[in-house]
Write a structure and sequence with these properties.
- The chain has a four-stranded antiparallel β-sheet, with no helix packed on it. It has a three-stranded mixed β-sheet with strand order 2-1-3, covered by helices on one side. Strands 4-7 form a two-stranded antiparallel ribbon.
- The chain folds into two domains: 12-124, no CATH class; 138-244, Alpha-Beta Plaits (2-Layer Sandwich).
- By secondary structure, it is an alpha+beta fold.
- It is built from seven helices and nine strands; from the N terminus they run αβαβααββαββαβββα.
- It is elongated.
- Helix 2 links the parallel strand 1 and strand 2.
Length: 254
Amino acid sequence: MPVNTDGLLPCLHSLTTRQLLAIKRDGVTSLISTAGDCDSCEQGQAPRLQERLSSINQALNQRGLDPLNHGPLQAAKWHRLYLALNRDRGSEAAPTGRRQWLLGGWSAAVGRASPHPAADDEWASPGTLIPRGREGQILPWGPVIDPLACTGCDACIHVCPEQAIRLEEQPAAYRILPEACSGCRLCSDVCAAGAVQVARWAAATTERLALRQGRCAACGTSFHVPDNGSRVSSLCPVCNQGNNYRGLFQVLPD
């Protein structure tokens, strides 16, 4: 989302959770904005800034941190404040065209933090920009694995760009780090068993899902499945699903 040095952006509601958490971490305590008629705008049907701030402030409150405040102003008042801030900073006056400043914007009215998240934060997972806190406190995203549906195929750990789901070798287990999750949902998309879901603003738990080892009686490969209390199958997930091992052993004619 392009934001110029004066803190203007095309749509107020295009500020992401990641960007809001980044500017909060950098010292911004309040946002002052103006906007047009969001109800009549096509973009206004998407999740709005107020919804994101509500969830963020709930998480901050759980950790005993001050909220990120938001003060909407009428366009004329916002414009006067905008010009005053630019004058205090010694910058050139902003274009005063009505359309330009009615599009909406945000500016740090308290503090002198930069309006831009740092470059390193551009692709940072939102959960890394907020203190981890205690177990049970919410984070922006978090993968959840159903141990009864999971087949132990490891597809989720191979596609996760943030390593929010990891495989531990000794003892074998899936380790889930919700603060690392970016919410891309690749893990959920790739899971053929539908065992992985990505929860939004859910209670954070560093989950360790224990795995049980086995060796397939058909193809001979080693495999692992979640230790959910049931008996481990003698077949690996691939052979168990389609008896594919029958195609591995064929006597071909000369």
